[in-house]
Amino acid sequence: MKATEGDERTGAMASSGAPEARAAAPTQASTPIQPAAPAPRRKVPLLPREHGAVFMSVHAWIMGLVASVTWVLHSARGEAFPGLSPTGILLSAAGLALFLLLAGAVSVWSHPSMRPAALGRLLGVGGGLALVATLALAHGPRGSLLTLGALALVPGAAYLLARRLTGPRSVPSQLAAIAGMAMVAPASALLASGYPRAVLLWAAGFVAFAGTVPYVRERVRRRKEELGLGQRVRRGSVALIWQAGALALAGLGWRSGVLHPLAAVAFVPGAVKTAAGILLPERRPPMSHLGYTETAVSTLFALLGGVGLGLPGLN
C-alpha cells in the first residue's frame, strides 16, 4: 500500500524530532498504566445494623431484670427465695453485650467482602460467650439454664434456615430472630434471681416484640400511596389481627389467674399504636420517628410487663 502525502509528512516530522512530531506520534511511555487501587476494606459493624434488634434485646434484658426484682420483693411473704444476685446480673449483662457483638457479625455474613472479618468476630465472641455460659452454669440454677439453652437452639436454627432460604430481611427471618432475642428476658431473670416462670416471660416478650414486624413493614410499604380506610384495613389486617390476638391471650391469662392484670395491660400501648398507625391516614413521618415510637412503646412494655410478670396472677 502506498503511503499518502500526510503519512510522509508525519514521518518526516517524527524523524526530525520537532515538537510537532512528538505531539503527532506519542509513544507508549507517555501514557503509563496506573495500577488499580486496592478495594477499601469494610469493617464489621460493632452492633447489628438493624437498630430495632439492639433495642429489642436490651428491652428483653430489662424486662427480665424488672420481673426478677418484682418477684423477689413480692416473695418476702415467707417463700423460700434466694434474693437478687449481683453476680448473676453482671453475667447476664456481659452475655447481652457479647450477644449483640455476635449479632453484628451475623448481620453482615451475606457480604462476601466482610465474611472473613465476620468469621473472626464470630470465633472470638463465641469463645467469650462460652466462658460466660460456663460461669453462669456454675453460679445460677443449672437445670433451668440448660433447659433454656436447649430451647434457644430452636429459634437459632430456624433463623439460619430462614435466612438461607428466604433472605435476611424476610418475615420468617425476622420472626425467628425475635424469638431468639426474646430468650434474653428469661436468661437475665434466671441469673438475677432464679425466676421460675421463664417460659411465660419469653412468650410474652415474643408476642409483644414480634407484633412490630407486620406493623412497620406496612407503614414503610404504603408511604408513597394514598389509601382509603378500607384499603388501609385490608393492607394492615395482619398487624391488626396480631394485636387483637395478643390482647385476647393476655385477657385470657388474666381471667384464668395465670397473669397479673398489669401484665395484660402492658399489651395495650402496642395495640393502640398499631390501630392508630394503620387506621388513620398516612402522614409519612420520617423513619426515625417510627423508630422513636417503637422504642417508647417497647420500653413501656418492658417496664409494665416486667412488673406484671413478676407478680402472681389473681386466682
The first-to-last residue Cα distance is 109 Å
Mass-distribution shape: flat
Structural class given helices, strands, pairing? mainly alpha
Helix content: over 70%
Give the SSE string. Answer: HHHHHHHHHHHHHHH
Proportion of β residues? under 5%
The biggest beta sheet is recorded as:
none
Spans where pLDDT lies below 50 across 5 or more residues: 1-29
What Rg is obtained from the alpha carbons, in whole angstroms? Answer: 30 Å
Instruction: Give the number of helices.
Output: 15
The counted number of beta strands is 0
- Determine the mean pLDDT: 81
Can you walk me through this structure?
The protein is mainly α and 315 residues long. The chain has 15 helices and no strands. It has helices at residues 5-16, 19-24, 51-74, 86-106, 115-139, 142-166, 171-181, 184-193, 198-210, 212-221, 229-235, 237-255, 261-265, 268-279, 287-310. Helix 7 (171-181) runs antiparallel to helix 9, helix 8 packs antiparallel against helix 9 (198-210) and helix 9 (198-210) runs antiparallel to helix 15 (287-310). It is flat, with a radius of gyration of 30 Å. The N and C termini lie far apart (109 Å). 35% of the residues are buried.
SSE layout and pairings?
Elements: H1 5-16, H2 19-24, H3 51-74, H4 86-106, H5 115-139, H6 142-166, H7 171-181, H8 184-193, H9 198-210, H10 212-221, H11 229-235, H12 237-255, H13 261-265, H14 268-279, H15 287-310
Helix pairs in contact: 3-4, 3-8, 3-15, 4-5, 4-8, 6-7, 7-9, 8-9, 9-15, 10-12, 12-14
